[in-house]
Amino acid sequence: MSTIQSRRDWLAATTLGLASCSQAPRPDAFSISESAETLGGQKAITLKRAAPATGGTPMLLEAEILPGRGFNTWQLRAYIPGKGITDLFTAPSLAEAAKLMTNGENDFRGNESFKNGGAILAPYANRIRGKFDAKTRTIETSIGGKKMKLPANWIGKNPGAEPHAMHGLLLDQRTTIFSSKADANSATLEAAWEKPFQSEWPGALKIQFHAALTTKAFVLKVTAVNTGAEPCPVGIGWHPYFNIPSGDRKQAKLKIPANTLALVDNYDNVFPTGVTQPTAGSQYDFRQPRAMGDQFLDDCFIDLIRDANGAVAAEIHDPASHFAIKVTSASPAVKAYQCYAPPDKSFIVLEPQFNTGDPFNKAIWKDRDTGIFLLAPGKEVVYDVTVEISGI
Question: Which residues are paired to 300 by β-bridges?
């Protein structure tokens, strides 16, 4: 059978699978459906669970996935007692998102993908600095001992701010769905991406995506496989904007179990200086849940504290809504949690990620492990994150 015919058969099977799963679900059953909106050349897909009529326990209900935008988790929805069905992410509707994600100036290399929702960051998370070339809108930097040109897709707002690369190369990339399944216990979607990085990254990767909405949690896994002949550096992260359901940011509590903070030059560039400090006893000590008040955060927390099973969990508590979110990663490769929390907004971005900011900058980091995973040929590394909600 030809490759083209195989592809057509696979597309037909996938379409039928999605259609069959989009029928009216039984009570408490799960379903999968395509949206009317196309983003990044592909339909958005919703994993869904039937909502309860009433109840006293928070429950995850929906996950909106954008296969055409690097498998972005655009929205999570939940039933919260006293509030009903609630958006857990700060993100516009799919219809509004489609108007923003046009690859225009504000969406250069997929920037609109990480301004809301929950973008997947790969093959690097956070910021990378280098020599800026205005003509090509790139920076030149050394990655794995090789000169690379990355898209200069971000810059601070202050005069003299430095253009730099941020949040990876998948933000505007289409993925290929190869599996979708819904039953009485979960709805699962799987996809993959495999495309040459050319001059933008030293190596070849296949990246696989897995999203599952279950009776207890939302689970996201990203697996990077080195398909090349040389070791390939890998950094993976996730960038979810978690809403504070009550809207009262001051009383919201944050927990990030980390012993060390990586200091930055300022909160405009947010470039690491290579200097670190203990969190203990400081305003950055969130090892136990602590009210946010008016504190601004755009900081990278490292030296993470893991539980007996090796997992690390950050939490957001919203006492005014009697509601809490736990964001857990069991991946040993996750070495940092970036947290972005401006006091004038009612969201907190919690980003479990492999690497710190500017991880290849030996001038500041010296020989310190910055979290970049050097993946051997034929090997894989797995990033995972689990979102759970509860009443408090």
Answer: 262, 338
Listed in sequence order, the residues at least 6 apart from 156 whose beta carbon sits closer than 8 Å to its beta carbon are: 162, 268, 269, 270
The position carrying tokens 């069905």 is 85
The answer to whether the pTM exceeds 0.90 is yes
Question: For the residues 225-230, what does the mean pLDDT come to?
Answer: 96
Closest to 87 measured CA to CA, from 96, 95, 78: 78
Q: Cβ neighbours of residue 392 under 8 Å, at least 6 residues apart? A: 317, 319, 322, 323, 324
DSSP assignment of 270-323: --EEEEEEE-TTSTT--SS-EE-TT--EEEEEEEEPP-TTS-EEEEEEEGGGTE
Cross-strand pairs, 279 = none
In contact, 151 and 138? CB cutoff 8 Å: yes
Render 135-176 in DSSP notation, one character per residue: TTTEEEEEETTEEEEEE--B--SSTTPPPBEES-S-TT---E
Whole-number Cα distances in Å, 363 to 55, 154, 193, 321, 358: 56, 22, 33, 46, 10
Q: For each of the domains in the chain, give its residue range(s) and CATH number, in order of start.
A: 3-391 (2.70.98.10)
**Can you spell out the DSSP letters for 175-202?**
-EEEEEEE-SSEEEEEEEEE---GGGSS
Average of per-residue pLDDT values in the chain: 92
Beta strand 205-214 pairing with 312-318: unpaired
Q: pLDDT tens, 15-62?
A: 434 443 444 445 558 999 999 999 999 999 999 998 876 778 999 999
If we measure between CA atoms, which residue out of 316, 315, 338 comes closest to residue 328? 315
What band does 142 get if pLDDT is binned at 50, 70 and 90? Answer: very high
Distance from C-alpha of 61 to C-alpha of 294, rounded to nearest angstrom: 31
The encoded tokens of residue 148 equal 């690379």
Q: Are 376 and 231 in contact (CB under 8 A)?
A: yes
Q: Which of 79, 74, 99 is nearest to 89 (CA)?
A: 74
Element (H, E) at 14: helix 3-21
Determine how β-strand 347-353 pairs with β-strand 237-243.
Answer: antiparallel
The closest alpha carbon to 16, from 164, 141, 177, belongs to 177
**Phi and psi dihedrals of 132, rounded to 5?**
-85, 135
| Contacting residues for 184 by C-beta, under 8 A, at least 6 apart | 26, 28, 29, 30
Q: Which residues, in sequence order, are CB contacts of 202 under 8 Å at separation 6+? A: 143, 144, 145, 146, 148, 230, 232, 233
